[in-house]
Write a structure and sequence with these properties.
By secondary structure, this protein is α+β, with helices and mostly antiparallel strands. The chain has 5 helices and 8 strands. The longest helix has 16 residues. Bound molecules: coenzyme A (COA).
Length: about 190
């Protein structure tokens, strides 16, 4: 199966990460505000972006997971990333994950990027169900998911331990038919 790994939206291009992205990637993940609800602390290791880019590029090649760099067309710079992880091909499901450089929050960029990612997941990869595992206090993230039609399905207690602190998760889900009816409603 040949997939199309460049996704375009009015303001953005989503493409696999590549060497040269290191500084922009670090600027996203060295920010404690961005990483506040992540399952790992803010990045401090200067070698980390290069390692991550190599891992992510290899994962695209192996079809293991797909983390796209989100590039702002106006500047050509990477402002975030979003992807599909923990893919279960037999069950046709995967998990979405995303982060945006804080300077670019509140402008609808992640909404635009995730719309393209959902189309990639449901059309190109033929997924049946997408999930997201979110810290219940992460209002920006739950808002982003709910705007896309994801439903809150349940609370998973004390699921993560980060830096000695214990966190709950809320699980969000979006079924293919729900996404399709959202697409049909948007077209009318
Ligand atoms: C989660 C995260 C990506 C959301 O970013 P965001 O910019 O709020 O997301 P969206 O693209 O959905 O933007 C929607 C906001 O932009 C506003 N907006 C402005 N112009 C817009 C436009 N043209 N279209 C849509 N929304 C627009 C909306 O009103 C909304 O603001 P509101 O939440 O105050 O109502 C961001 O907070 C982040 O990176 N957080 C840290 C990482 C993280 O926690 N990731 C989740 C764990 S996997």
């Amino acid at each position: 199966m040949t997939y199309h790994f460049t996704l375009t939206t009015p303001r953005l291009t989503l493409r696999p990460p590549r060497p040269g992205d290191e500084d922009d990637l670090m600027a996203i993940h060295d920010d404690p505000e961005v990483m506040r609800y992540f399952s790992e602390p803010a990045w401090t290791d200067p070698e980390r972006p290069a390692r991550q880019i190599a891992e992510d590029a290899a994962a695209f090649a192996a079809r293991e997971y797909f983390r796209f760099a989100i590039v702002l067309n106006e500047t050509g710079r990477q402002i975030g990333n979003c992807g599909l992880f923990r893919l279960h091909w037999q069950n046709r499901r995967g998990e979405v994950g995303y982060a945006l450089n804080r300077a670019h929050w509140g402008k609808g960029y992640m909404n635009e990027a995730l719309r393209a990612l959902l189309e990639f997941a449901f059309v190109e990869l033929d997924m049946h169900r997408l999930e997201a595992d979110i810290d219940p206090r992460n209002a920006a993230s739950t808002g982003a998911l709910e705007r896309l039609g994801f439903q809150r399905e349940g609370l998973l207690r004390e699921r993560w331990i980060v830096g000695g602190e214990i966190f709950d998760s809320v699980l969000y889900g979006l079924l293919r038919r729900e996404w399709e009816s959202g697409q049909a409603a948007a077209a009318t």
